[in-house]
Amino acid sequence: MNLLDDSLSADLARDGALTPDMTERFQALADYAVGTGARGILFTCSAFGPCIEAVAARHATLPVLKPNEAMIEEAAATGRRIGLLATFAPTLDSMPPEFPPGLEVVPCLAEGALAALDAGDTAAHDRLAAEAARSLAGCDAIALAQFSRRAPPPPWRRPPACRC
User: CB count, 10 Å around CB of 124?
Assistant: First the structure.
């Protein structure tokens, strides 16, 4: 089963910080999944670590996983200086504390890449991400903070095409 609340990242960008309401929305999604028989939960937005941890505390008998746990473990095994490349700025606040102590996490935002992706320009997104990654050349590994692809808005939320 897949559940989606695609407004959470927009709300986080607008509010600039995680809020109790966002945590409650995560809890509601998890409660629904558990109520339908889920035997584990994988969340796929790395900017919401504390919300996911709250769900894990409430549903301690189930595996509740963050999307980046395996990546962090592998990056930590690679070296001590890890570049963290993100296209969604709030991720650079929430994700570094999830790395083990003793690692140097070097945050890097690919400015404009997410806006390009939202506009449907995947080539510009990829180019901007690659350009930003160059600044992490001195790192032992580069961890990608986002791995999910944002879908275009549904037809009823898209602006009408200009027929000028």
Answer: 15
Q: Supply the pTM of this predicted model.
A: 0.69
Given the structure tokens 């808005």, which residue do they identify?
153
Q: Are 99 and 76 in contact (CB under 8 A)?
A: yes
Please tell me whether residue 54 adopts helix, strand or coil conformation: helix
Instruction: Kindly provide the residue ranges of all beta strands, DSSP E only, lying in 18-136, ordered along the sequence.
Output: 41-42, 64-65, 81-86, 104-109
Position 161 scores a pLDDT of 45
Q: Which amino acid is at 78?
A: T
| Residue corresponding to tokens 């919300």 | 51
CA distance 78 to 96: 16
Burial of 117 (0-12, 13-18, 19+ CB in 10 A): buried
Write the pLDDT tens digit of every residue in 8-32.
888 988 998 899 999 999 999 999 9
Torsion angle defined by CA atoms of residues 138, 13, 67 and 156, in that order, rounded to the nearest 10 degrees: -130
Any residues with CB less than 8 A from the CB of 143 and at least 6 apart, and which?
A: 68, 71, 72, 75, 82, 83, 84, 85
